[in-house]
Amino acid sequence: MTGPVLVTGAAGLIGTVLRGGLPERGWSLRSLDVVPVPEPRPGEEHVVADTTDLAALTEAARGAGALVHLAGIATESTWPAIAHTNIDGTYCALEAARRAGVGRVVLASSNHATGYTPRPDGGLLREVDAPPRPDTYYGVSKVTMEALGSLYADRYGLDVVCLRIGSAFPEPTTTRHLSTWLSPGDTVRLVDAALRTPSPGFAVVWGVSANTRRWWDLTAARALGYEPEDDAEVYAPALVAVHGEPDLTDPVHARVGGEYATAEFDSDNFDV
Amino acid sequence: MTGPVLVTGAAGLIGTVLRGGLPERGWSLRSLDVVPVPEPRPGEEHVVADTTDLAALTEAARGAGALVHLAGIATESTWPAIAHTNIDGTYCALEAARRAGVGRVVLASSNHATGYTPRPDGGLLREVDAPPRPDTYYGVSKVTMEALGSLYADRYGLDVVCLRIGSAFPEPTTTRHLSTWLSPGDTVRLVDAALRTPSPGFAVVWGVSANTRRWWDLTAARALGYEPEDDAEVYAPALVAVHGEPDLTDPVHARVGGEYATAEFDSDNFDV
Amino acid sequence: MTGPVLVTGAAGLIGTVLRGGLPERGWSLRSLDVVPVPEPRPGEEHVVADTTDLAALTEAARGAGALVHLAGIATESTWPAIAHTNIDGTYCALEAARRAGVGRVVLASSNHATGYTPRPDGGLLREVDAPPRPDTYYGVSKVTMEALGSLYADRYGLDVVCLRIGSAFPEPTTTRHLSTWLSPGDTVRLVDAALRTPSPGFAVVWGVSANTRRWWDLTAARALGYEPEDDAEVYAPALVAVHGEPDLTDPVHARVGGEYATAEFDSDNFDV
Amino acid sequence: MTGPVLVTGAAGLIGTVLRGGLPERGWSLRSLDVVPVPEPRPGEEHVVADTTDLAALTEAARGAGALVHLAGIATESTWPAIAHTNIDGTYCALEAARRAGVGRVVLASSNHATGYTPRPDGGLLREVDAPPRPDTYYGVSKVTMEALGSLYADRYGLDVVCLRIGSAFPEPTTTRHLSTWLSPGDTVRLVDAALRTPSPGFAVVWGVSANTRRWWDLTAARALGYEPEDDAEVYAPALVAVHGEPDLTDPVHARVGGEYATAEFDSDNFDV
Amino acid sequence: MTGPVLVTGAAGLIGTVLRGGLPERGWSLRSLDVVPVPEPRPGEEHVVADTTDLAALTEAARGAGALVHLAGIATESTWPAIAHTNIDGTYCALEAARRAGVGRVVLASSNHATGYTPRPDGGLLREVDAPPRPDTYYGVSKVTMEALGSLYADRYGLDVVCLRIGSAFPEPTTTRHLSTWLSPGDTVRLVDAALRTPSPGFAVVWGVSANTRRWWDLTAARALGYEPEDDAEVYAPALVAVHGEPDLTDPVHARVGGEYATAEFDSDNFDV
Amino acid sequence: MTGPVLVTGAAGLIGTVLRGGLPERGWSLRSLDVVPVPEPRPGEEHVVADTTDLAALTEAARGAGALVHLAGIATESTWPAIAHTNIDGTYCALEAARRAGVGRVVLASSNHATGYTPRPDGGLLREVDAPPRPDTYYGVSKVTMEALGSLYADRYGLDVVCLRIGSAFPEPTTTRHLSTWLSPGDTVRLVDAALRTPSPGFAVVWGVSANTRRWWDLTAARALGYEPEDDAEVYAPALVAVHGEPDLTDPVHARVGGEYATAEFDSDNFDV
């Protein structure tokens, strides 16, 4: 691959992690966000653009070797906001890649694409056993993201890897995170694998660390070359001390999407 | 159920079939389209509204007992057209139902939601073995439709039945239709079943007649009470005489979506 | 004339008729619609674009020898839908022709531009005796279409022929159609004449077959070279048997626009 | 009639004339513009609203006895500006009247609706002999205005009077104005007549003073009760002294629309 | 400076004054408005464009030596109208200048940017003692105009002169105008100075004639080279005869913005 | 004051600080964001809405005792994004308060409203000596925010306090922050004071902690009752050890806006 990796949403939480970690793995970066990225590194290109502006995005994609699409609202919101920013934004990212001749796209999908899926009675949940079952409009946008990615792979031959990211935070802060955490280091490892694996075609994989309490299967992600190194369990004593041992029958623990898949996130509950 | 069935897209091909057939099965209709329905029957209510106008749709849904959502672009188009009419339109249909207290929604999905899925080596293809694999932007909109339906079932308790309609035309006109035809009579039977079945929760079923050459499994549809009566095979001699026996290795026959899943439908090919 | 005829709305009812009939009269076609035209013929160019996208339309018009503008909502609808699709769409068609150097445009106007005009006591109604008197928002859009056509002829020297189409269906299905039918074959003949007639400047002509019960004058259309060959009267026995002889004092028969010019089409009547 | 006369565009040139003259003829006024009217008189109601805001306009129309619609761009402009402000604005004015139960609407049409119409060889030009032949996008918007007015009269029974205004300025300033001037006093008389005449149904009349050099027939306007009192001829000596006697073969004098109907107003000529 | 002066809003009141006066001071003009400028002079270029159309404005700015931005709503209006036309319009003017390489921009600001500022107890009010204190949405748009101008001067090195225009009318018509009048001749002198002064950087100056009753300081304007020649006082006898001597404690006289800074302009007062 | 404090942008950095600190000072909260606030506290109301949706915002403001407006893009972005989210959003916040009868509004302005203002030679910079001099589009939006606040105070009598926030982060991370830091605790104290001070009318105050190296005057803020308790100087040894003593002649230290007021933030520099 030649040319830098265009990262959309580069000023966000995950974008900041990648901006720190990808260069030392040999990737040069072109960082794009609707706001300027803070403190661009030497050699880092940066662009301010809205990911729903197809012309600007196509322009930004010219000469890039790959595109990592992180931009979008990162949690539940109103439908118009989600439809515009996340759904139209993903279309623009893929179409910009196609127009600019960028052959590989990594999409930041989410566990919330299938958030109402229940925890299996035992064993690990494979991606193929977790078809779309979104818990929010946000989750619907991630189903659409995966569908668009599939279309661009099938129709135009792009390599498209969808990462169903778990809980990508600096540290786990809830007992659910003991299962779902994706550590900063593993975030870099996962994206690096998705960029590096030869000819993935279309793939959907969980994005989660090697957590002891993990119940999402990493076979598919490992097939891309992903080798997680972190485990949330080191935070378990502290978190359990505060919150108690998780009750796995509680919907927060019994469904992929956690709190998002509970009545707490009904839009009726958002109103005063 | 009390109150009429609100049918969106009532002036279209399938809407016209339902307007003819549902009343004699005891359903009263409220027909909605962006154009007036031609020749409304006695007792048929009719409304002109755009399905992307949430306020108008909610108003139209008041007092309805169920909503059958057919409105939308019925084939491939540009992304902005599909995103607006089909994706936003489906959100509005479901949200209007929720706001108006309509408890059941039938959604006109399509085989093109999974159009790149290959024909199995033998046997019938179940819906659960045909996850999203759209062949067009149109297909992406149908994936999103199913995802939105799933959300409204899980989050708000609506009954939502998605019909992955095959080829809903008066008669089969290609040899592919020998497998995929959904006859007018069976269209009525299928929607009637989706309206009548008790508490379906969320369901996705193929919409196809009892065609001899069918390779889409009807077990799930039959579980809703659907009993197809037509078979495209009666048209087979005439169609085969003209077009020859279908070559099942031809992508048109080897994938769920037929022509849509071939290079012919690349948007690059649409340009001059 | 060199270059193909660009036909907008090519996937619609009339577009399909023209795609079948114009090539055998020697016209090569470039078919444009917001959805792909089904089964393009050998030699037929095809484009997917929205006729309200001026840039796309201008691009599509480059190199064309003439433009036949059929795209638009083909019946009554809400004002926003009509204003956007039909009025802005017609502006874009004419402006695209001008920018691309296309010298001739045929516009699909409608009898509904003057739908409230009464049937004359006797004799035939000439176009000049039927000034704008629309029966619907749809009809208003056709008045605007003719006005825009007139402007582009006067201001820029384009040849613009407006066809006030009657009832363009495969067969007549109401007793009104015995007067107003435009057969598929005559549709082709009429458009062919509008494309072929030397230097028409600006013209508005009825589009109707040689129906025995016709009351719209064809002198102007014939002056373009149109020679209709069909007569709805062959369907009269069957239609009269079912519906009875038409009562010419009934508004449906006493006004140009038929049902559109009756209270049935008041927008108040569309509401529940 | 009860209730004030709602005047849109009240802060404009003609609006200011009417605000001065209508009250002394017994009309109470509700003046509406997108900017505040300067110096409202005692008893004058005033509203700031955009005439393309249907909700605001309907609100403003409640309780009004009649609506005089002057708002809009008063000369040529770009198509998007004309389509939005003039065409959508007129729809909103008529629809607001209908919703608010206002039974009479006076529309400020323009001679430019038929600006390319040539001067007759002799005699006066009647409105019925001057069908739509616009000279500009502005003129197209006036054709659409008349068509919408006709529809609201036919479909909803509103009284709608369209005034094809000539040159409504304080004084004539060109030799063309010697024919086309509508004096401020006659502007008031004309609108007063249009408001007062019993049951006009739908009418289109020229709006011009009793100019000696007039070639537009005032029979129809007089039938509404309009009695013009001014004649531009008193300005003739001064204007002819400066500009010479008009050459009636010059297009500026030979067509209804004057300069608008000359190449000077081609949009190509507007560009640098 | 080479290239013509691009004047936006050239068909308006001030634009017409400048079109008359700037050429005789040696400036060639390119006049732009959303409507055609009436009677373009020999050598005057003219363009029809909307100032919120950045692409069109940039195109129009190519080759210009300076830009005088007058376009916009010239009084109070609704927020959406002001935000679109005045705020976005000013951004487009400055950004078009930057993209086209035009190094100097003169902006028509207004006293209403600081309309609630009280009259000083004695002496003259300097611009630096009149920070933003708008009296209307219109005034807010002028504050934003000055802020955008400041940014383009600081960030891109453009010369930007903001004229806080007083009452730019042919003649004073109120006793307030005795203080605030900017005569047509002085309008030309002021803009001429703003165009001619060497390297002004960023400046904000009052735009007012040498009125005897003036209380806005002209030191800053004179520093640009402005030498006013007119004085409203010659109209004082007539105005005072009609209206009486102004009561300087009346808010209309006690605040920069006059009537705009009184309850009369509360938007609540605009409603019926 | 009765009724909760409506906080817009409640899920952001500052919103999270306020959600933690205001309740313990006796304020009940209604938290609003375009995304759900994480982990609402007992007694905390929460709403998902877009601050550019005036109807939703007005609804959310009903019954509130005050409104703290934090929502918006918190750094530089493209003009369309800033104009829509920050400028229209602020209008909506103020207008919603007015419509809902909320008498006090606290606005999150920014030092970037005057970012190009230079550091005084000595002493502290008062707000009145720092008129608008924005360093970015973001800064322009804050100038407009202050202007809108001023208008709503003058025209409608609202109490409006604008906080020109410095660097509101958990800890100082640059040597500039040694001057500009606003600690989380002081953020709460400042907003508490702005909510509590009697009848502030319209006020603009710096939002900064009691930093030893501070050069913005806190007299005005203290007049509202603000008593800062934190000083960034405790972080000075560590920061100076890493970055060295700041060079006060470096533009980053010599202007209010720091890096924003340097060429680094030219939009030209954002492009690839």
From TrEMBL, chains A, B, C, D, E, F:
Gene3D superfamilies to which the protein is assigned, alphabetical: NAD(P)-binding Rossmann-like Domain
Keywords, comma-separated and alphabetical: NAD, Oxidoreductase
Organism taxonomic ancestry: Bacteria, Bacillati, Actinomycetota, Actinomycetes, Geodermatophilales
NAD found in the keyword field: yes
SUPFAM superfamilies: NAD(P)-binding Rossmann-fold domains
Homology family: Belongs to the NAD(P)-dependent epimerase/dehydratase family.
Protein name (record): Uronate dehydrogenase
GO molecular function, one term: oxidoreductase activity
Domain (NAD-dependent epimerase/dehydratase) ranges: 5-170
Domain of life: Bacteria
